[in-house]
Write a structure and sequence with these properties.
Elements: E1 3-7, H1 15-28, E2 36-40, H2 45-56, E3 61-65, E4 69-75, E5 79-86, H3 100-109, E6 117-121, H4 132-138, E7 147-152, H5 167-174, H6 179-199, H7 214-224, E8 228-231, H8 232-239, H9 242-247, E9 251-255, E10 259-260, H10 267-279, E11 283-287, E12 290-291, H11 294-300, E13 304-307, H12 315-334
Parallel strand pairs: 1-2, 1-9, 5-6, 6-7, 7-8, 9-11, 10-12, 11-13
Antiparallel strand pairs: 3-4, 4-5
Helix pairs in contact: 1-12, 3-4, 5-6
Length: about 325
């Protein structure tokens, strides 16, 4: 039996550690190590950075700035992944912050040379300046010579920049602004988009691309520089050729943060279940708590599920509990 062990961060375990614990449990049950593959996944932010660092075999570098914000980076010989996550949420719209922080962090990380690929995590900013601050910060950095990838929140990959369903209108109405105020901001956004497009012509149709409205227009700014816009789970799945691995597998073990009637599946779980269904591979959920009927599990796309129990913040105890639970599950499948 060929088993794919897929995990995002669960409880105190980072995604890579959770995936390894799944695989270790399958081996203990008698599955040959050569028939196993451990696949860590993440949505965005430092969690994405941890997974990318594990895949590149490089350390994740993290620091806290005065803003305050957390900066992270994963430099390697051929690629650079960077992100900034602001600590604290602005409660006004438009928020009085700039996207420059991400650009400044990127430029600082490029001081050692230009890699062949730059992965930009765009999900951690709460600005709404259409990426003007970011573009000003990276001006002259020479990004035209490298492959750019912009990581978007999974729920914003189709968000347009302008229009009634665009970033400004949606955020403005959600903030309780009057129609006149939203229309004024929309006109301002249109003018800014035209100005930035004229100044950065790498991709003239950036304002019309799906995802250009993500993170207050930061997706638009990245697209202007030629970046491909994609969600974190989708990009990791593509990088790892997850679709091919699924077609060669007989069973998927999927670590899920929670499995109960009150919790909705997250972007990673949704993507894996959809891909597994297309490949016609059964999925067994492994979660700290399973409080959901078998019928509901199957409606969500799981064949079954098993709980490994709370680990009370102890990573070593969590790894052991996951491995022991998986071992019991896999023994049943190997009979």
């Amino acid at each position: 039996m060929r088993i794919l062990a897929i995990a995002e961060a669960i409880g105190p375990l980072a995604a890579a550690h959770a995936a390894t614990a799944l695989a270790r449990g399958a081996v203990a049950a008698g599955c040959p190590a050569g028939n196993l593959a451990a696949v860590p996944l993440a949505e965005a932010g430092p969690g994405f950075g941890e997974v990318w660092a594990a895949l590149e075999g490089q350390p994740l570098e993290r620091s806290i700035t005065d803003e305050p914000a957390e900066r992270w980076s994963v430099p390697s010989r051929d690629s650079l992944a960077v992100g900034v996550s602001r600590l604290g949420v602005e409660d006004t719209f438009p928020p009085p912050v700039s996207s420059a922080l991400l650009g400044e962090h990127l430029v600082a990380e490029l001081s050692g040379g230009m890699p062949s690929r730059v992965v930009l995590d765009l999900t951690g900013t709460d600005s709404h300046d259409l990426g003007r601050g970011f573009l000003n910060a990276v001006a002259g950095a020479g990004l035209a010579s490298t492959e750019l990838v912009g990581i978007l929140p999974s729920d914003q990959t189709d968000l347009p920049l302008l229009g009634l369903q665009g970033a400004t209108a949606k955020a403005g109405y959600a903030a309780g602004l009057a129609v006149g105020e939203v229309l004024a901001l929309e006109r301002q956004a249109e003018a800014t988009a035209a100005e930035l497009t004229a100044a950065h012509a790498a991709q003239d149709d950036a304002a019309s691309l799906p995802g250009s409205g993500a993170q207050g227009g930061l997706g638009f700014a990245a697209a202007l520089l030629g970046a491909r816009l994609v969600s974190g789970p989708a990009y990791l799945a593509e990088t790892l050729r997850l679709d091919q691995s699924l077609r060669r597998s007989d069973l998927v073990l999927l670590a899920v943060p929670s499995l109960d009637v009150a919790s909705e599946p997250g972007p990673v779980t949704d993507m894996v279940l959809a891909m597994a269904a297309e490949a016609m591979v059964p999925v067994v959920g492994i979660s700290p708590v399973v409080a959901i009927a078998a019928r509901e599990l199957r409606l969500r796309g799981f064949e079954s599920a098993a709980a490994f129990g709370p680990a009370n913040g102890d990573p070593a105890a969590a790894e052991q509990a996951v491995s022991e639970t998986v071992s019991r599950v896999v023994r049943g499948w190997l009979r």
